[in-house]
Write a structure and sequence with these properties.
- By secondary structure, this protein is α/β, with parallel strands linked by helices.
- It has one domain (about 1-300): Alpha-Beta Barrel (TIM Barrel), CATH 3.20.20.
- The protein contains ten helices and eleven strands.
- It has helices at about 20-35, 60-70, 90-100, 115-120, 130-145, 180-190, 205-220, 245-250, 255-265, 280-300; strands spanning about 1-5, 40, 75-80, 80, 105-110, 150, 155-160, 175-180, 195-200, 230-235, 270-280.
- An eight-stranded parallel β-barrel has the order 1-2-3-5-8-9-10-11, surrounded by six helices.
- Strand 6 (about 150) and strand 7 (about 155-160) form a beta hairpin.
- Helix 3 (about 90-100) packs across helix 5.
- It is globular, with a radius of gyration of 19 Å.
């Protein structure tokens, strides 16, 4: 099982400022140096709610391109890219190009979107998000896999579209869909290489969403064993900073206890875990890296 670290692009809890690129780069390089398999970035344009001031965040794809050059080994992924921000054919072109820049290390994580405030602020339609997503998948998947599509839908068109040149992998980067709910899970079962479910904590929190995914696979006639299961885990270290509702919403514990949770997720057949860690600081990264090392020792012991 691979283990990844989520690098923050936003003015994050308790930090007081949006991180500069050099800080983002240094954290990604540190994650690579201590043995993580992947680095993940959220794709948002701003955070705003309840009349509060907007929380700043850098544009995801620009930073990903820079990190592709700044790192050498780790996989890089979007967790997850918002479909409605970009034309789907262009998004596929961007993914193939980023896979080239990273020498085959990119994973395209994709979702339908949810944050109305950023759609409104940037003039992006917020209607029929799942309908738009369904059409987008019919464009993106064939462009990634075969490099060509001819599609005309209600929301998107791609007339005799071709992606050339192709990237370093014949089938393009893997397509990972972040989803919940019957319709989105059904689309995941139809089109995705990987499924992501988000903000889990203890291993038992995977049981219900996974059962829903398996039901969706049964509906479309797909063997769920052919769909890689990935999960974003909320991990909290209360002694490093105050956190809300740790017991209910975060995985927490000693290095050994977190390593044991990793072992449980691996036994459940999860292929890739990504960690959203609070508080977001280098000490937390080092502590999680120690748990990952204990987990790997158990794999080989």
């Amino acid at each position: 099982m691979k283990v990844g670290w989520t690098v923050m692009l936003a003015n994050y809890l308790g930090q007081g400022r949006t991180p500069r690129y050099r800080d983002i780069r240094d954290m990604a390089r540190q994650a690579e140096a201590v043995g993580f398999d992947s680095v993940w970035l959220y794709d948002h344009l701003l955070y705003r709610s309840d009349g509060r001031a907007a929380i700043g965040i850098w544009e995801c794809w620009t930073i990903l391109s820079a990190l592709a050059e700044a790192t050498e080994r780790v996989e890089l992924g979007t967790l997850v890219a918002c479909n409605s921000f970009r034309n789907p054919a262009l998004l596929a072109k961007m993914a193939i190009t980023l896979d080239e820049v990273s020498n085959g290390r990119f994973i395209l994580g994709l979702g339908a979107g949810w944050n109305k405030a950023e759609h409104d602020a940037f003039g992006i339609p917020f209607d029929h998000l799942v309908g738009r997503f369904e059409e987008a998948l019919q464009i993106i998947r064939p462009l990634l896999k075969e490099g060509r599509v001819d599609f005309k839908g209600t929301y998107y068109q791609a007339a005799d579209c071709e992606i050339t040149p192709r990237g370093p992998r014949d089938g393009g980067p893997p397509l990972m869909v972040g989803s919940f709910g019957p319709r989105m899970l059904r689309l995941t079962a139809q089109y995705a290489d990987m499924w992501n479910t988000a903000y889990l904590h203890r291993p038992s929190s995977l049981n219900e969403p996974r059962a829903q995914l398996e039901a969706a696979c049964a509906d479309v006639g797909r063997d769920p064993a052919t769909l890689n299961v990935t999960a974003l885990i909320a991990l909290g270290y209360p002694d490093l900073g105050a956190l809300p509702n740790v017991a209910e919403t975060y995985l927490t514990g000693s290095e050994e206890e977190v390593a044991a949770a990793l072992q449980d997720y691996a036994r459940m057949g999860v292929t890739h875990l990504m960690f959203h860690v609070e508080p977001y600081k280098a000490e937390a990264l080092s502590r999680l890296a120690a748990s990952v090392e204990l987990y790997r020792q158990g794999e080989t012991g």
